[in-house]
């Protein structure tokens, strides 16, 4: 049957189904990209597009709708399976946009308070976002918000990379 011969109700149903499918495709792509980035928490499609394209070293074309972009990125990830451009050096990592976003999320999630000694911003201390399991031993957790905690400078220096104590309450 050609589309022209469908009744109005049938056409309506068909386009509703199409919309639903498209929505699912985008949702799946979003889930996949976020998982690949190793990010917990809530991210907008645009944020995921920006972060993933940075990691994949691809340019985001501002004229293309983000829903198309996210699907494109999910396909790219499928093809290569591993991040193409892993952040290599320590300096690269801590200056990456991805880390900076995640760092803010950690402060939002855990608050401006040292998870170890309880010092807060009133104490005038400097806070660090610490990897509970260090990047050196668990690089796969470097972008996992559940592997992050807020520590004051003293506690963080005291901890070094030798222990993986989770001080969070
Ligand atoms: Zn402390």
Key descriptive features of the protein:
single chain; 169 residues; mainly alpha; 2 domains; two-stranded antiparallel ribbon; 2 strands; elongated; binds zinc ion
Layout: helices, strands, pairs:
Blueprint: H1 8-37, H2 45-56, H3 66-80, H4 90-95, H5 97-110, E1 127-131, E2 148-152, H6 153-159
Antiparallel strand pairs: 1-2
Helix pairs in contact: 1-2, 1-3, 2-3
This protein binds zinc ion (ZN).
Zinc ion (ZN) binds near residues 114, 116, 117, 152 and 154.
What would your notes on this structure say?
Helices cover 50% and strands 6% of the residues. It has a two-stranded antiparallel ribbon. By secondary structure, it is mainly α. It has helices spanning 8-37, 45-56, 66-80, 90-95, 97-110, 153-159; strands at 127-131, 148-152. The protein starts with 7 loop residues before the first helix and ends in a 10-residue tail after the last helix. The chain is built from six helices and two strands; from the N terminus they run H-H-H-H-H-E-E-H. It binds zinc ion. The site of zinc ion has 8 residues, from strand 2 and helix 6.
Specify the biggest β-sheet: 2 strands, antiparallel
Global Rg: 21 Å
Helix content: 40-55%
The strand count comes to 2
Widest sheet, order of strands: 1-2
Q: Class by helix and strand content?
A: mainly alpha
Count of alpha/pi helices: 6
Distance from N terminus to C terminus (CA atoms, Å) equals: 63 Å
Domains counted in the coordinates: how many? 2
Order of helices and strands: HHHHHEEH
Mean pLDDT: 83
Q: What portion of residues belong to β-strands?
A: 5-15%
Distinct bound molecules: zinc ion
């Amino acid at each position: 049957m050609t589309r022209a011969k469908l009744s109005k109700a049938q056409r309506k149903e068909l386009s509703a189904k199409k919309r639903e499918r498209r929505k699912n495709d985008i949702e799946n792509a979003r889930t996949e990209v976020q998982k690949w980035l190793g990010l917990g928490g809530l991210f907008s499609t645009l944020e995921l597009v920006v972060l993933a394209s940075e990691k994949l070293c691809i340019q985001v074309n501002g004229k293309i709708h983000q829903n198309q972009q996210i699907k494109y990125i999910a396909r790219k990830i499928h093809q290569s399976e591993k991040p193409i451009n892993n952040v290599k050096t320590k300096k690269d990592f801590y200056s990456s946009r991805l880390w900076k976003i995640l760092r803010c999320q950690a402060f939002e999630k855990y608050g401006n308070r040292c998870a170890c000694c309880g010092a807060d911003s009133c104490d005038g201390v400097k806070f660090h976002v610490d990897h509970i399991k260090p990047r050196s031993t668990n690089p796969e957790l470097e972008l996992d918000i559940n592997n992050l905690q807020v520590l004051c400078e003293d506690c963080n220096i005291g901890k070094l990379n030798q222990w993986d104590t989770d001080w969070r309450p």
